[in-house]
Amino acid sequence: MTEPLRPDDGYLRSLDAATARAAESAEPLTSPHAGASDAVRRRVTEAVAGCGDQLVRLSRDLHAHPEVGFDEHRSVQAVADLLASHGHEARIGAGGLDTAFVARVGTDGPHVAVLAEYDALPGVGHACGHNIICSTAVGGFLAAAKVVGETGGRLSLIGTPAEEGGGGKETLARAGVFDDVDAVVMLHPFSHDVAMHPFLGRRQLEMVFHGVAAHAAAQPFMGRNALDAAVAAYQGVAALRQHLPGTDRAHGVFTDGGARPNVVPERAALMFYLRSAAPETLRDLAERVSAVAHGAAAMHGCGVELLWDAQPAYLPIRFNHALSARWAVNQEPAGRTPLPPGVVPEFLTGSTDLGNLSFRMPAIHPMLAVADAALHTAEFATAAGSPAGDRAVRDGALGLALTAADYLADADLRDAVHAEFAELGGPLDVPGYFA
């Protein structure tokens, strides 16, 4: 067997060097808003420090016992037990999902939710660092809950399962879990500290081609080859790529290519992920790929079914600069200076169901430096359970707690956050957008 040719990493090394140069000259984000009072900020900081060891233990525990999407029962119970030790009840089963939960404090006024993710990846565990996402969210909630009596308003911790392809946040949103939430905050581990990093919208498309079976030797002329149609579709999408915006992605695999070489395949199938940086361009990409599929089917005398979004589509993230700037300011006490957009190459990204919420209400999804490694790799999984991951847990919890307190305490900040959201178009009909 010949070994595969390993790609040269020269391009990635040049990107690293360019990013380092850009970071040196980047201006840190500032906020014109005061946020919470100094007294509230001190109490929040003390509360994060007080539960820091527990948060790190939670992170390490989740890391050591990874669970895939919709099967995170042990992880959710670990969170519920920690919340109970601080006097908070987690309502497990929110929105009809067994591994979703909600914990709340406050009874009226503006409502901000801190979001937790805790699903792992099959085979590589917490290679996306969701153990850190969860632990920082729990810490942010516990610390901010200490000052809700002073800031006013309402605070929730919402556990959102199955981000890795399952669309738990969209399912919860359609079940009404976020109906009374005004803004959401969460973070994501990464290679750099970034206040706002784009994530792409994503749709799933299964193309199923139907042909006519025939004996491939005796009567091939009586068949219509579904595999030929699928190959033509794959090649058509590959040719389409050179005419797409640089932010678009289209990648797929064959899931069915027939059963035996001596039978003309009557069925063949492909699965594609389509990604784009805006809802409008994602919709356009979907239409163009649909046309490719229908053309491929017609070329080979086959029929085709297009099966869209077996799991909810993901929208890209809509930034909220006003709230993100408060996050950046709130990382300074931890010794971090989150970079503004455009410093870290923006094509180094993926997709997340947080995007769906960001088109319903103001949201932030800053990136927290843990390791100079790519997400979804064994190297990042190792880092997520290392001392660097532990530091990220403490720093991220502080940033989330202070940002939630700022939102609740500062009416001018809230006005700016929601004015910006309205300027960008306000809420979007997410379930109906691609209908």
Q: Care to describe what's here?
A:
- By secondary structure, this protein is of the alpha/beta class.
- It contains 13 helices and twelve strands.
- A six-stranded mixed β-sheet has the order 1-2-4-3-5-11.
- A hairpin with an 8-residue loop joins strand 1 and strand 2.
- Helix 2 (38-64) packs antiparallel against helix 3 (73-85), helix 4 (130-145) crosses helix 12 (387-409) and helix 9 (321-331) packs across helix 12.
- The longest helix is centred in the N-terminal third of the chain and has 27 residues, at 38-64.
- This is Peptidase M20 domain-containing protein 2.
- Residues 205-292 form the Peptidase M20 dimerisation domain.
- It comes from Pseudonocardia abyssalis.
Quick rundown:
By secondary structure, this protein is an alpha/beta fold. It has 13 helices and twelve strands. The chain has a six-stranded mixed beta sheet.
Shape descriptor reads elongated
Give the spatial strand order of the biggest sheet. 1-2-4-3-5-11
Which regions are unreliable across 5 or more consecutive residues at pLDDT < 50? none
Number of strands: 12
**Mean pLDDT over the residues:** 97
Radius of gyration, in angstroms, nearest whole number: 24 Å
Structural class: alpha/beta
* H-E order: HHHEEEHHEHEEEHEEHEHHEEHHH
The helix count comes to 13
Helix content: 40-55%
Main sheet: strands, sense, barrel = 6 strands, mixed
Organism: Pseudonocardia abyssalis
Pfam families: M20_dimer (PF07687)
Protein name: Peptidase M20 domain-containing protein 2
Domain Peptidase M20 dimerisation: 205-292
